[in-house]
Amino acid sequence: MRIAVTGGAGYIGSHTVLELLDRGYEVIVIDDLSHGYRHNVPPGLLREITLSDTAAVKAALAEKPVDAVIHFAAFISVGESMQRPELYFQNNTCASLSLFTAMLQAGVRKLVFSSTAAVYGMPQSVPIREEFPYAPVNVYGESKVMVEKILDWFDPIHQFKSVCLRYFNASGADPQGRRGEEHQPETHLIPLLFRAIETGEPVKVFGGDYATPDGTCIRDYIHVTDLAQAHLFAVEHLLAGGASEKFNAGTGSGFSVKQMIESVERVTGKKVPYEIGPRRDGDPPELVADSGKLQRVLGWKPRFAQLDEIVRTAWNFERSRVISH
Ligand SMILES: NC(=O)c1ccc[n+]([C@@H]2O[C@H](COP(=O)([O-])OP(=O)(O)OC[C@H]3O[C@@H](n4cnc5c(N)ncnc54)[C@H](O)[C@@H]3O)[C@@H](O)[C@H]2O)c1
User: Fold this and answer.
1) Could you read off the pLDDT of 251-277 as tens digits, one per residue?
2) Does 208 map to a domain?
3) Structural domain range at position 39
4) Low-confidence ranges of the chain (pLDDT < 50)
5) Distance 92 CA to ligand 1 centre (A)
6) Which helix H or strand E contains 203, and what residues bound it?
7) Catalytic residues
8) Pocket test for ligand 1, best of 72, 148, 192 (most atoms within 8 A of CB)
């Protein structure tokens, strides 16, 4: 079986490529390297193409029959999406439509899509279930809602089957140290805490007065290798003739920013310098998934449920990166 992975040079995509190769799948990666890295892609797999080039994407999909596409490629910064909405609607929504058009032309009708908890905006309650309404509070989330809606129409009209995985906070690194998180610029908490340790510059915590046990925001951290496995199960569901589905991809456990800081201090044995700043607009106090549907329908279970285990894999990668640079 041959799987095309868009965005496979990035953080989550590159971990999923490893998972697919480890399971014996043939893989090609379609990535324009706008944010990913050539060193994240094993030799021979990269097709350096941007998704809005429909003809080039079709040609890559037609080199040899592709059975399914896993689509990670997107821009991911919520803050940037509120300054440059046109960029996010173009790259996340229009470029996805270009990919789907190329897939139709190449006769590929199975897709796993990287969606996000941002489609729910400020949920009324937690844990969040899949049937909660779309209510994005930023352009990034809206750009993903639009793709989910395109896919809803493509199923009955084109018999185009999709699984949308709405990720909570992807975190950690490959336990064998082969890949890790290297966003540029970095906006994710664990790498930012490491950076604060390395530079001594305090990390800014956005809000310490939320109605949570310690006043800081609570998020659901899913290990990137567990997330990669969810993609494997999702693609296998589609390859077996399964129906289109939407799933939350989280663990169901929430941790506060302060709990993350404590975990990083335990794992690294170092103090994290931080300061509590004002709240950030549009940040819900608590985002935790109800991941029951993913567990029931796909038989998925998190293997990295302990926070310190997640942080340890990230720290091991961070140390190897510092040593090799
Ligand atoms: N990281 C998270 O916690 C998180 C949470 C929710 C959803 N997501 C979604 O998961 C996906 C992957 O996120 P990530 O953290 O691995 O991001 P990333 O930036 O590390 O990877 C994205 C990859 O897509 C490529 N890309 C972007 N636009 C492209 C285009 N038009 N054509 C070809 N390649 C393009 C980039 O070069 C990069 O390699 C994204 O769709 C993101 O919205 C991530």
Assistant:
1) 999 999 999 999 999 999 999 999 999
2) no
3) 2-171+222-249
4) none
5) 9
6) strand 203-206
7) 140
8) 72
